[in-house]
Amino acid sequence: MEDNKDMIGEVTDISAEGECACSGKTKERDPKEYKDLLNRLNRIEGQIRGIKRMVENDAYCIDILVQVSAANAALNSFNRVLLSNHIKTCVTHDIIEGKEETVDELLAALQKLMK
Question: 0.70 cut: is pTM over it?
Answer without folding.
Answer: yes
